[in-house]
Amino acid sequence: MNDFPVLDKETALSRLANNHSLYNKVLVMFTEQAGEMLTMLEALPQDQIADQHLALHSLKGSAGEVGATRLFYTLQQIDQTLKTAPEHVTADQIEDVIAEIRRILNITAPGNPAA
Fold this sequence. Notes:
mainly alpha
C-alpha cells in the first residue's frame, strides 16, 4: 500500500473533470473531516471503534474523492471488518489510519509547497 502516493491529485482531478477549484474545495472539506476524525480516534478507546463505523465509512468515501488512496484502502479494510467481525479491528489498523491522516494534514497544511 505504500506504493500509492499520500495524495494522488491527478487521479482525483480526472474524476472532477480537471476542475482545480472544485478539487481545492473538496480537499478543504476533507481535511476538516479528517482532522475531526483524527481527534476522535486519538481519544477513543479501542473497544468503541465499532461505534464509529458510519464516520469511518464516510471518511473512506471522502478519501477516495481527494485521491488519498492509502487512507482509502486502509479504511476499506477496516470497513469490511466492521461489517463482518467488528471485534477483529486491530489497534494497528487504527494507528495506520491515524498516521495516514497526519501525513495528509501535514502535506496539505497552509504554507506547505506540496499543498
